[in-house]
Amino acid sequence: MKKISKKMQFNLKKIKIKKLYTINSAIKLLKDMKPANFIESIDATFHLNINPKKSEQNIRGSILLPHGTGKKIKIGVFTTGKNINIAKKYGADFVGMEDLAIIIKKQTIKFDLIIASPETMNLVGKLGPILGPRGIMPNPKFGTISNDIKKSLKEARKGKINYRNDKNGIIHSNFGKINFPKIQLYENFLTLYNNIKQSKPNQLKGVYYKKINISTTMSPGITIDHLSL
């Protein structure tokens, strides 16, 4: 059995396991915990009352968080022509075609986001088995298949995130860093929560959110009273 660290024991004692916390009190509690030796991310886990086996009930979307995520992401861009220089100018870490495809296949660089202009999708589509499971396959719904490479890159650098449910109907998403002011974390969370709420399938009746938790990279989870939002 894995031994629980003293830091985790301390943090666990601060949480009442069966208690539902307001988002503001949960954020304050996370900030009061013993920190790790690095700046931790804060993540939200949304357990949805959907059937992931039904394609019409799967949830996916993208949202520009008002205060970003604080995370430095690595972006690869598939494009051609004048968009090559635009991509380099506005923050792409690597721009290419076949050469970028080789890097992805060999996984010599781990990208957090892939953007593609439409004319490159014949090549990019072949990378689906690699990009799909990682959740970074370009998609027009996410703005990652676009003729406006400049806009896509600027939004990504400002904190635009993509989300989708996993096979268990759960959405995992980062919404900031522990060193963000509480009001910024609150506004980021509420923006994400409302965006997912608006994605509720029309045919789905009754409860949508079954459970919501937030946690830092190294902390235990705190259950949110989503009815108070």
From TrEMBL:
Query: Keyword Ribosomal protein, does the record have it?
Result: yes
The record, for Gene3D superfamilies, names: 3.30.190.20, 3.40.50.790
InterPro entries to which the protein is assigned, alphabetical: Ribosom_uL1_bac-type (IPR005878), Ribosomal_uL1 (IPR002143), Ribosomal_uL1-like (IPR023674), Ribosomal_uL1/biogenesis (IPR028364), Ribosomal_uL1_3-a/b-sand (IPR016095), Ribosomal_uL1_CS (IPR023673)
Give the signal peptide range.
Answer: none
**GO biological process assignments:** regulation of translation; translation
Q: What's a single GO CC term here?
A: cytosolic large ribosomal subunit
Q: Which protein family is it in?
A: Belongs to the universal ribosomal protein uL1 family.
User: What interactions and quaternary structure are annotated?
Assistant: Part of the 50S ribosomal subunit.
Q: What is this protein called?
A: Large ribosomal subunit protein uL1
* Record organism: Buchnera aphidicola (Cinara kochiana kochiana)
Q: What is the lineage of its organism?
A: Bacteria, Pseudomonadati, Pseudomonadota, Gammaproteobacteria, Enterobacterales
